[in-house]
Structure to design on (94 residues):
């Protein structure tokens, strides 16, 4: 968890204590996207702990052809594209 940030009244356990918020896009696929982002956060936990990294928000971004992820303000917000731009199918987790 970044210094000075404390999570109160958490509704569920968080997969990575070094990521404060995990936000999927609103809509019918939000629960699946939330699970997808939580799994990504869990995989990144040992890497982030070893490098002393923290992220304020991990977000889903809408499908596009320009990028699959972007980073704002040195990790304040990281946005990941989880769906293919042409088909709208979920990208492979591997």
């Amino acid at each position: 968890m970044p210094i000075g940030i404390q999570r109160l009244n958490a509704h569920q356990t968080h997969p990575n204590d070094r990521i404060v918020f995990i936000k999927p896009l609103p809509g019918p696929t939000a629960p699946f996207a939330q699970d997808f982002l939580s799994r990504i956060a869990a995989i990144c936990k040992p890497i982030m702990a070893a490098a002393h990294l923290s992220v304020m928000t991990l977000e889903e971004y809408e499908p596009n052809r320009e990028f699959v992820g972007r980073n704002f303000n040195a990790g304040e917000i990281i946005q990941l594209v989880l769906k293919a731009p042409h088909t709208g199918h979920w990208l492979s987790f591997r």
About this structure: The chain has one helix and four strands. The first strand starts at residue 19 and ends at 23. Helices lie at 30-51. The radius of gyration is 14 Å.
